[in-house]
Structures are given as C-alpha cells and as structure tokens.
C-alpha cells in the first residue's frame, strides 16, 4: 500500500459509500488518510470506521485539496460536477454513477475483467465503472464466452430497492409498515408502490425510447467492456423493481455460439474465481439474494438447457449490488489506478 496515498470517499453517507468504507477497513486502509465527504446536508455527521469515528465534511475544492484518489459514490448529476472538480485538484477519480459510462473518452473499467485498461494511457484522470447488473452479466458471461462463444444474452434483472440508495430503502420500509397496518402507502421514489408489488421500471425511460436508462446501460456497457475481448454479445433485457432490500436476482438466457451440455457449462462457470456455483436444485441449493449479501463472488445456479435449442443456456444468478456491484469495483479500480493495490 502506498503510505502517502490520501483517499476521499464522496457520498460516504450513502448505500454504496457505506460499503466502500467497509471494504477499505477490510484492507486496513488507515483512517488518518481517509476523508469522508458528502453534501452539505450531512456536514458534521459521524461515521464509524473500525474503532475510529470520522466526521463528514461537505465536498468542495477545499476539502479535496491534497487528496490523491477520489472515489465518487454520488448520483450522476453530482458526479458530473464533482469529477472535474476533483480532477482539477490533481486527484485520480473513479466514478460509480452512470455519468461517464457512455463517454468514449473515459475508460469504462470492470476490475478483474478489463483491468488492463487502467494501465493504458488515457486522457484525463477519470475512470468510470459499470452498473451492478452489467458487473454481474459480464462476469457470468466471460467464462462461457471463452469456452463456447456467446452470441446473445437476455436478462431479467430483479432489483432490490437499495439500487435507489437510502431513499429506496426507506420507501420500502415505510410502505411495508403502512400496508401491514392496513394503510395505503404513498409512492415517492418509485413510480408505483413497490411494497408487496413488482414494478417493471427501474429509473427513468430514455428520451423517445421504450427502454429505461438502466436497461439501455447494460447493452452499451457490455458492448464497451466486451470490445476488449474482440467478441461482443448482444445484451438486452428488462429491469424490474422488487420488494427486497439488498441483492439483485438475474434470470439469464444465453445463446452460445456452439451447443454445450449443461455439465460443460457448469465446469466453465466453476473455473471462474469471481463466481460461486450453487446448483443442487433437488437439495434446494440455488442462488438467493439473502445468501449473497457481503459476498464478493456472484452466485449462479439453476443451469438448464433443452434439446430443441441446445445452444441456449438458462440460469439464475444473484449479486450483492452495493458491495460486489459497486463498492468493490470502486476500491479495486481506485487502488490500482493510484498504484496502491499491493
Ligand atoms: N446502490 C447500488 O446498488 C448502486 C450500484 C451501482 C452503482 N450505484 C451508483 O452509486 C451512486 C450512489 O448510490 P447510492 O445507492 O449510494 O445512493 P445514496 O444512498 O442516495 O447516497 C448518495 C450519496 O451521495 C451524496 N450526495 C448526493 N448529492 C451530492 C452532492 N451534490 N454533493 C456531494 N454529495 C452528494 C449523498 O450525501 P447526503 O447524504 O449528504 O445527501 C450520499 O452520501 C449512484 O450514482 C448510483 O447510481 C449504486
């Protein structure tokens, strides 16, 4: 670890920021080299960091001075302003929002998938990370692509409310409590009641398009990530908001370039250290959001194919959206970028 590196976690009071602090603590990153920043709303709030207590400061050119690495866990509109501010202050910036994912001048990096992009010179000091769903899809598809080739991936993502941050968590809590007390709750964060319901819309729709920004993001981000592999599967699907707090479930249909028996597909997935195969359905062993919380691996199971279409593989996976799908990527890309990943 570079002993002089100073890190600022911006958005430290949020769902992802909280996970970033846990990840840095696990890696023994020293508290005196860590700044926890957020908006003015959180000024003075105290956050536990192991035995220590860190005081939240509002982010500004002043509070960014002397910081070598800025981990941005803020909404996209805030990141668009804060990334150039941190860059101007001389820091490396890693952003987990959607602000720069489509920007061809900013590298889109999934650590462990295309980390080499961090070693290739690029303009500016900003790096963007993919969404939690793209993180899971790319990690699952890559061993299958290497073994059989992959032409197409259809995804249904069942997304826990923590994907909408602290406000999403609070809304499900309030709605569940209201419904259990016989009251009809109001919807503020989500377009409809999510408590005891399913909503086939996560985030806003694209302008003049039937796709949501979340869904369109998977297609675009996978195209950018897989371009480095020389083979780009078409990834598309539906994002559904579900009434769970943490963890996303993904139902995937993968069209391989050659037919593969399920045993061979399972062996290919087992070969990836980023995956945990849970696939003994008769013993009720398969991925569950409740099992994946705080696990840096992506869980996969329910592998199936059928003789009429032997090139299609059906599976179910889960990912810890805020941890594996966001915070881990921020910390791993950041430390590598700052030359401190030892
Ligand atoms: N949650 C997930 O599973 C997930 C997964 C992948 C990517 N992401 C992305 O990660 C980012 C953070 O998401 P989250 O779920 O952690 O949201 P969150 O719980 O709502 O937290 C947002 C954080 O950003 C801070 N913030 C908001 N506006 C700010 C501003 N103008 N200046 C400085 N700080 C500001 C908030 O500070 P205050 O507390 O002071 O308001 C809070 O600390 C988003 O871009 C999201 O799309 C989230």
From TrEMBL:
Give start-end of the signal peptide: none
Which InterPro entries is this protein grouped with?
NAD(P)-bd_dom_sf (IPR036291), Semialdehyde_DH_NAD-bd (IPR000534), Semialdhyde_DH_dimer_dom (IPR012280)
Biological-process GO terms, alphabetical: amino acid biosynthetic process
Semialdehyde dehydrogenase NAD-binding domain boundaries? 6-121
- Which GO-annotated molecular functions does the record name? NAD binding; oxidoreductase activity, acting on the aldehyde or oxo group of donors, NAD or NADP as acceptor; protein dimerization activity
Q: Which domain of life is it from?
A: Bacteria
Kindly name one Pfam family recorded for this protein. Semialdhyde_dh
Q: Which Gene3D superfamilies match?
A: Dihydrodipicolinate Reductase, domain 2, NAD(P)-binding Rossmann-like Domain
Family (UniProt)? Belongs to the aspartate-semialdehyde dehydrogenase family.
Which PANTHER family is this protein grouped with? Answer: ASPARTATE-SEMIALDEHYDE DEHYDROGENASE, DEHYDROGENASE, PUTATIVE-RELATED
Q: What is this protein called?
A: Aspartate-semialdehyde dehydrogenase
């Amino acid at each position: 670890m570079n002993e002089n590196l100073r890190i600022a976690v911006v958005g430290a009071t949020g769902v992802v920021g909280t996970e970033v602090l846990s990840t840095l603590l696990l890696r023994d990153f020293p508290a005196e080299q860590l700044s926890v920043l957020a908006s003015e709303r959180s000024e003075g709030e105290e956050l536990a960091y192991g035995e220590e207590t860190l005081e939240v400061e509002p982010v500004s050119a002043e509070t960014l001075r002397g910081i070598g690495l800025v981990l941005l866990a803020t909404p996209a509109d805030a990141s668009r302003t804060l990334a150039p501010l941190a860059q101007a202050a001389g820091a490396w910036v890693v952003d987990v929002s959607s602000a720069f994912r489509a920007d061809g001048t900013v590298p889109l990096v999934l650590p462990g998938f295309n980390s080499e992009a961090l070693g290739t010179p690029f303009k500016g000091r900003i790096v963007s990370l993919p969404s939690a769903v793209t993180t899971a899809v790319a990690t699952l598809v890559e061993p299958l692509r290497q073994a059989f080739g992959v032409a197409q991936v259809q995804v249904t993502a069942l997304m826990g409310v923590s994907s909408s941050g602290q406000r999403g968590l609070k809304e499900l809590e309030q709605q569940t409590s209201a419904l259990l007390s016989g009251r009809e709750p109001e919807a503020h964060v989500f377009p409809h009641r999510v408590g005891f319901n399913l909503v086939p819309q996560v985030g806003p729709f694209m302008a003049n398009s039937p796709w949501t920004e979340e869904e369109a993001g998977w297609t675009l981000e996978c195209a950018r990530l897989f371009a480095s592999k020389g083979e780009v599967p078409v990834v598309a699907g539906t994002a559904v908001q579900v009434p769970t707090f943490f963890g996303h479930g993904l139902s995937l249909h993968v069209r391989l370039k050659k037919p593969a028996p399920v045993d061979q597909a399972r062996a290919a997935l087992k070969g990836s250290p980023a995956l945990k195969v849970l696939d003994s359905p008769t013993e009720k062993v398969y991925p569950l959001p409740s099992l994946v919380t705080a696990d840096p691996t992506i869980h996969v199971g329910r592998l199936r194919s059928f003789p009429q279409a032997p090139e299609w593989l059906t599976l179910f996976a889960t990912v810890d959206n805020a941890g594996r799908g966001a915070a881990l990527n921020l910390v791993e890309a950041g430390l590598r970028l700052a030359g401190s990943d030892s």
